[in-house]
Fold:
Amino acid sequence: MTVQQSVTRRTVLGGLAASSALVVLHPFSSRAAANQAHLRIMETTDLHVHVFPYDYYADKPNDTLGLARTASIVDAIRAEATNAILVDNGDFLQGNPMGDYIAYKRGMKDGDMHPVIAAMNVLGYDCGTLGNHEFNYGLDFMFNVLHGANFPVVCANLTKGDLAAAPRQDELFLKPYVILDRKLKDGAGREHPIRVGLIGFVPPQIMTWDAENLGGKANARDIVKAAEAWVPQMREEGAEIVIALSHSGIGQQAYADNLENASIPLAAVDGIDAIVTGHSHLDFPGPKFDGLPGVDNGKALISGKPGVMGGFWGSHLGLIDLLLERDSGQWRVIGSASEARPIFRREDKQVIAGVGDKPEVLSAAQKDHEATLAYVRTPVGKTSAPLYSYFALVADDPSVQIVSQAQIWYIRDMLKDTEHRDLPVLSAAAPFKAGGRGGAEYYTDVPAGDIAIKNVADLYLYPNTVQAVVINGDDVRNWLEMSAGIFNRIAPGSVDASLINGDFPSYNFDVIDGVTYRIDLSQPAQYDRDGKLANPGGNRIRDLEFDGKPIDPAQKFIVASNNYRTGGGGNFPGIASDKVVFVAPDTNRDVIVRYIMDQGTINPSADANWSFAPQKDTSVLFESGPKARQFLAELKTVKIEDAGDGSDGFALFRIKL
Structure:
């Protein structure tokens, strides 16, 4: 069955799985009256091709991830409810070396089955939607993959070509929604018909992030506007319960055009009964959402509607439990509960697997898993020094350094016969694996010696392509001012203040190589995380020099970067597609591989081109992985002290400014 076909696989909604004496029914199932029924919505989101519980970058098993682990609890969780459906909320197609192996090495011919779809088909999904990373390998690749799904995939705001005058007039690539005709068993054991509508949404920012793949071919409508148009039609067609599949984070409450994280105003759309969210790699309900306007974290409500966000990489199964009541022949929601149920737990800083694997899921992707292992273990050269990212947010770092060295090497060669050949070449690169939501082991750590494709993929997680812009010295300063927003403001004389702003993504902390500078933490951040001018007088970038002299604000520079950043990703001031002078056919990862092969042996030692400006009697704290301790003596520009244990398996470190 293809994604375009109607869904008639099951006649009874979910039903009870093979039960055991240990299964305890949810209170909504056990206490439902004759005219009431319990409907459980189970959600996976942001799988990013993690079928196996395996970290291909570290080349070892990992108990915190994998659809095979999540799948092992689906049957039992389904059995806790009288009626259940299973949905996926997008970002399943890209994100680890298996995804790259299929896209770049094995390929997807017509009729081929992608391993993540093969694995998902085992579980019997009822519906799915698209995430922004589905477009990273191009539209043709994506649709070849989707044709293998035996469940419908919907998206209400992805259009062919330009937007129409109104949402319902848009020509869409996929159906905007499906309405499932099912049987619902009530508290007395009687079956009744129900029509469940599922509608999907993707962030409009795909048109920036994947402009190369989508430009001239597709467009993306505002999420809320699309919902306001299509949800009433779903109701007109008889949908009694409407569930939004929102590949969008839980962000601001107020509506604004083309929000990336639009789940709060989306949930407020009249006619939506429940919402599954994702994109942000968080779990809701959870402590990160305490006090957020528009969210009741205790009751797991988003704009008053039941909601959930099921983590990422298969770390959790999102659950929304709805208590429905039949009134005048129609079902309505009278109660709800939500949770993000994890597949692992932490005890004494150790990860403890909470579940096993579902063998059928492993079998579905076994051949491609083994091929991926062979692919990522292929050596491409050697490194004379270790590559690690434990201190990438607080000091010049070897994992970022090697990316910049490769980008400068490549762009100089590409532009040597052009009008830009005499301009100095700088490079902007950011750390991708820097702990944070990824956990205490989410760091690059490659020992000196052989370097393989898995290590390059570890250095550069995304299949971005190389691009270069021409900007002036003033633009360089603003670029760095934006990056410096990752740090909290530190008042002089503070003792053990928190250094890192956890809401600022590490992939937007660009280090620019080819210039030297210091960051003054006593100043407020000039730009907020969205690139808006917040403190015009907040000049954090000090002593910015090129070639040993203060940078000339008018001097022209080439800056090598990637298509995400130069297309406006991260909203860096003054950096947009109109500044682009070179668009490479090669991915950044391919360039790094070529550079290593050309050099034979690389020397990635950081050149210490940036540091913090000193502040008397001031100290700050930050977290990193425990393995960071073994590299403390190597740091050149900053002295870092071990400050004991942090939270959730992290180690704590101190810098005396």
Notes: The two ends are 62 Å apart (CA to CA).
